[in-house]
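Tokens in:
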């Protein structure tokens, strides 16, 4: 027996060596796999943001995807798992801005190119660290095909897509309301905002003959109409008439309009219309041909149109104006307990300020219709299936997508802008010098793409679209495994780009995992001190223990409560496998493993029971019931093989009945080898280390051993 089994299993002594051996074997690359493999199977890794270390959520998706790939590789598929890294646009710039703040610097005082170069160096350094952490978690991905979202070829293809969409009438530039973060000075898409419930004062103000309610008295200087519901009998005689109001800085005349959007039960049923500072008011303004008057600037301060209030920040202006309204007898009452939804920036929690800006938008309706049709035709399956309804709802209600970001870091929008007539042109080759509409000089657009514009094309780009050989072999991919929170941000964009660019969905199945919370189901955060660092616990308990803790009992689409105790428990399981190996290798040392075994009736029954387990586990893995498969393998090895079969074998191996002894030795050897294969996708390190100790084995590496026949 190998002497290493005389001491407990120590993953820290084996894992790095084993991973290096796997990687050097070349078998992560499907082109190098042994035997004939005609049927492809592919997964595109959701590219981690190259701006910091991996967290436990990354460990979950890497574990799930590696497990699927290892299983399919053993099943004889031509398996490709493409790794990648995302420049992550706005998120990475925010991370770097925090670094600048600690250094007493500001991005607003830096040359844009200097800032870009600094973030690039920072990102590439973190990318290298992140890749090594992915290796630590056992990811058997093809590093020779790794992609980064800022590679020149990828940037070029992303920009080509923009030009194609512009030419096809799917991208346009227009002045429309956008979500503006006054802290970070950029627009954001709807999925980059968070709606929070908040209590704010509701101010009931006098507007000529009306009393109306608003939470934003500071925008009154931008009002261009008064609106009521057309079915509200209380105000029908006012519709179409002009009224005069006191604005605190003079009088103004506003027309009363009737619009279905107005809720008669809100406040008094009368609302002020401020098209420049509310997206719903903007739509009303379009319907009624209203002027949009901006009274709040990009920094969240009242502008020169607000008279004596100019220069005040929003919160400060609200307090001052409400007090002045009260003094002027124009404030009837204040409801201090009004609860409503407020949009905030998803990174800094600053309240979003709607602004009218010339931006680039993607026309979503025609793209969404194709995506809905593909899902309806079951070209894409969702696990769990209830996310199909969520996807459909999102696609049915989607708004045009603002893809412009006023940040340095990211892929530049290849466009020219005419400031005179506000026209925009896609320009890949820097060939447009004058406006086609007015003939005046144009300038280069300095905005960058929303990061989801490039990552939405990731399944294509990572397979070297459009001409790469991998596109022909591996597209569409088989599984997109990612967090359920990306059902809005990423999944729809990948589907629409796949259908738009190559007329096919990018993947056949979407597997959605939940969040990883602490042992009490609370969100992990550094401030709470409840963060589990995946690299720390793998160093302490081994990667296999973390992987099992993340998988067992983790049903798709639901959040997981993870404790260090659970991880420690699976360290014991890894050691149990080690102890089983010691027993079986010792018991079968003298066994002629090349002879055809003859089993007793009792051992035949045990083989049949194992074969049923094998069928169940295989079926579960084929259907992506990973949580069930992992639990069945775990319980069989510990509670059936170790606790029952091995314990029973101790007396049988001491028997004088040679037939019984020989049968049992063959049984132990057979069940042990096949159990190692079953367990390998879940716990690759300990199983490979044990496999290497087998005196005779089907393949040099367990990683490419055939899955047990069933």
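Residues out:
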């Amino acid at each position: 027996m190998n002497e290493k089994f005389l001491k407990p299993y120590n993953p820290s002594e084996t894992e790095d060596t084993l991973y290096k051996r796997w990687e050097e074997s070349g078998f992560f690359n499907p082109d190098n796999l042994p035997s004939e493999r005609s049927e492809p199977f592919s997964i595109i890794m959701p590219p981690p943001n190259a701006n910091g270390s991996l967290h436990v959520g990354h460990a979950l998706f890497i574990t799930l995807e590696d497990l699927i790939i290892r299983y399919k590789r053993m099943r004889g598929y031509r398996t490709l798992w493409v790794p990648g890294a995302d420049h992550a646009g706005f998120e990475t710039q925010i991370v770097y801005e925090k670094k600048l703040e600690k250094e007493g610097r500001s991005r607003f005082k830096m040359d844009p190119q200097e800032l870009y170069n600094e973030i690039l160096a920072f990102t590439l350094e973190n990318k290298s660290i992140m890749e090594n952490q992915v290796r630590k978690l056992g990811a058997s991905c093809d590093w020779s095909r790794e992609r980064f979202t800022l590679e020149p070829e990828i940037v070029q293809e992303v920009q080509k897509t923009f030009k194609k969409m512009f030419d096809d009438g799917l991208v346009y530039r227009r002045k429309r309301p956008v979500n503006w973060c006054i802290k970070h000075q950029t627009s954001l898409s709807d999925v980059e905002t968070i709606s929070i419930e908040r209590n704010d004062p509701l101010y009931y103000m006098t507007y000529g003959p009306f009393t109306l309610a608003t939470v934003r008295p500071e925008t009154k200087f931008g009002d261009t109409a008064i609106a009521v519901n057309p079915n509200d009998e209380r105000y029908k005689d006012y519709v179409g008439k002009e009224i005069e109001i006191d604005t605190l800085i003079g009088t103004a005349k506003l027309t009363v309009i009737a619009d279905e959007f107005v809720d008669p039960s809100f406040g008094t049923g009368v609302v002020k219309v401020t098209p420049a500072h509310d997206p719903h008011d903007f739509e009303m303004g379009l319907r009624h041909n209203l002027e949009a008057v901006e009274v709040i600037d990009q920094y969240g301060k009242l502008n020169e149109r607000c008279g004596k209030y100019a220069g005040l920040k929003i919160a400060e202006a609200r307090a001052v104006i409400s007090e002045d309204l009260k003094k002027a007898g124009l404030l009837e009452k204040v409801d201090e307990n009004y609860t409503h939804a407020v949009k905030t920036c998803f990174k800094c929690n600053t309240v979003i300020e709607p602004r009218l800006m010339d931006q680039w938008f993607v026309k979503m309706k025609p793209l969404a219709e194709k995506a809905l049709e593909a899902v309806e035709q079951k070209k894409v399956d969702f696990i769990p299936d209830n996310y199909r309804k969520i996807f459909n709802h999102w696609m049915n209600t989607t708004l045009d997508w603002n893809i412009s970001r006023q940040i340095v870091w990211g892929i530049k929008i290849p466009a020219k802008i005419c400031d005179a007539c506000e026209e925009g042109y896609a320009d890949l080759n820097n060939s447009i010098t004058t406006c086609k509409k007015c003939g005046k000089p144009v300038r280069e657009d300095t905005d960058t793409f929303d990061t989801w514009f490039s990552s939405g094309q990731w399944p294509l780009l990572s397979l070297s679209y459009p001409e790469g050989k991998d596109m022909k072999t591996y597209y569409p991919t088989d599984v997109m495994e990612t967090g359920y929170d990306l059902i809005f941000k990423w999944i729809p964009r990948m589907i629409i780009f796949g259908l738009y660019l190559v007329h096919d969905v990018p993947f056949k199945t979407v597997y959605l995992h939940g969040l990883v919370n602490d042992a009490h189901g609370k969100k992990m955060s550094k401030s709470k001190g409840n963060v589990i660092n995946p690299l720390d616990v793998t160093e302490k308990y081994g990667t296999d223990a973390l992987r099992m803790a993340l998988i067992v009992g983790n049903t798709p689409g639901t959040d997981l409560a993870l404790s260090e105790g659970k991880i420690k428990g699976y360290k014991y399981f890894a050691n149990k496998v080690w102890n089983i190996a010691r027993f079986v290798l010792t018991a079968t040392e003298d066994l002629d493993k090349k002879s055809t075994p003859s089993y007793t009736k009792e051992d035949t029954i045990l083989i049949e029971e194992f074969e049923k387990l094998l069928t169940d586990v295989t079926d579960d893995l084929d259907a992506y019931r990973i949580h069930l498969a992992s639990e069945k393998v775990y319980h069989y090895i510990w509670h059936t093989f170790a606790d029952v079969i091995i314990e029973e074998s101790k007396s049988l191996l001491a028997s004088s009945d040679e037939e019984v002894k020989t049968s049992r030795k063959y049984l132990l050897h057979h069940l042990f080898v096949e159990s190692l294969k079953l367990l390998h996708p879940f716990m690759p390190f300990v199983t490979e280390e044990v496999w290497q100790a087998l005196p005779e084995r089907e393949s040099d590496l367990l990683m490419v051993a055939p899955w047990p026949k069933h």
